[in-house]
Write a structure and sequence with these properties.
- Helices cover about 45% and strands about 20% of the residues.
- By secondary structure, it is an alpha/beta fold.
- It has 2 domains: about 160 residues, Bordetella uptake gene, domain 1 (D-Maltodextrin-Binding Protein, domain 2), CATH 3.40.190; about 120 residues, Periplasmic binding protein-like II (D-Maltodextrin-Binding Protein, domain 2, 3-Layer(aba) Sandwich), CATH 3.40.190.10.
- The strands form 2 sheets. The chain has a 6-stranded mixed sheet, with helices on both faces. The chain has a 5-stranded mixed sheet with strand order 7-6-8-5-9.
- Strand 6, helix 6 and strand 7 form a beta-alpha-beta unit.
- The longest helix is centred in the first third of the chain and has 23 residues.
- It is globular, with a radius of gyration of 23 Å.
- The N and C termini lie far apart (about 75 Å).
- The relative contact order is 0.18.
């Protein structure tokens, strides 16, 4: 009896000691119920569109529903905050944006979450540069001529943007800073109205994604000056980068969307999410769809996303302070 009791106590002690380790080995069979994908952007937006592409393909991979939930407000802050406060079990994941993860923290006095601490990175999903276009009335055939005109006429050129801290806004202010010019910003709530006003000559300069402006550039109703990515895009190989077109070393601006989970999500679940999402993003049909939207497919390690987010946070903090950019 004494031997049996000793054996049972040893088994119990082992079970207690192994409990936390067993809990960490939670990726086996994951997911075994529907997964919620919170999107910190409105329906019909670029983040929403790529989220639905991911959800459809991950549902097939996992044989489980992936339900997209759009949570809108405060430039992505509302949805990101909600995701950060969900159970850290892998069954709620988040697609968030450059604004909510790397820009707003420098524009707002107080954030309801810490982008660097409250969310665990999974992988970069997509990056999307903007194209720089001008109204044809501007007496400049290329970016160097545009900058020369702006220097001779400080404050005369106006640019439209869809809100403080958005990538078009940051791109225009970075051009102001690096080129030593002064263009005046005009905020818009509607991209359609903004594009219409550019074509109507109500302002002269616009940074926006290729799906919006490229048709007008190709038709001649807007003049294409460059692309804001660090390198030329394969799908737009005839379009120079802003950096090379104007000799502005260090100019690079892209909107980007990353996939996250609440901090505390088990590491093996994060690893599985990273592997499965990266595999989906590497598929030819998915990469092709992203290129059609004017973007570049992501993928890669969680650490790579964490490093990118940290670098972007530092970069935009400096510009936001220098340009005195405030939240809308």
């Amino acid at each position: 009896m004494r031997k049996l009791l000793t054996h049972l106590l040893a088994v119990a002690a082992f079970a207690i000691a192994a409990g936390p380790a067993a809990a960490q080995s939670s990726a086996a069979g994951f997911p075994n119920k529907p997964v919620k994908l919170i999107v910190a952007a409105p329906a019909g937006s670029s983040p929403d569109a790529i989220s639905r592409q991911l959800a459809s393909r991950l549902s097939a991979v996992w044989n489980q529903s992936v339900v997209v939930e759009n949570v809108v407000g405060l430039g992505g802050i509302t949805g990101t905050d909600r995701a950060a406060k969900q159970p850290a079990d892998g069954y709620t994941i988040l697609l968030s944006t450059i604004g909510a993860m790397a820009v707003n923290v420098s524009m707002m006095e107080k954030m309801p979450y810490d982008p660097a601490k409250d969310l665990a990175p999974i992988t970069l999903v997509m990056s999307m540069p903007n194209l720089l276009v001008t109204h044809p009335s501007v007496p400049a055939n290329n970016l160097r001529e545009l900058i020369d005109f702006a220097k001779r006429n400080p404050g005369k050129l106006r640019y439209g943007h869809p809100g403080s801290g958005t990538s078009p806004h940051l791109a225009a202010e970075l051009l102001n800073q690096l080129a030593g010019i002064r263009m005046q910003g005009i905020p818009y709530k509607s991209s359609a109205q903004m594009m219409s006003d550019l074509l109507g000559g109500h302002f002269e300069v616009l940074f926006h994604n290729s799906s919006v402006v490229l048709p007008h550039a190709r038709s001649g109703s807007a003049r294409l000056m460059g692309i804001t990515s660090a390198e030329r895009m394969a799908s737009l190989s005839d379009v120079p980068t802003v950096a090379e077109a104007a000799g502005l070393q260090g100019f690079a601006v892209t909107a980007w969307f990353g996939l996250y989970a609440p901090t505390g999500t088990p590491s093996d679940i994060l690893a599985k999410l990273n592997a499965d999402v990266s595999a989906v993003l590497a598929r030819a049909d998915v990469k092709g769809w992203i290129e059609q939207q004017g973007g570049v497919a992501g993928g890669g390690s969680a650490q790579a996303l964490a490093d990118h987010q940290a670098a972007e946070t530092r970069k935009w903090r400096e510009l936001i302070r220098a340009a005195n950019i405030k939240a809308d």
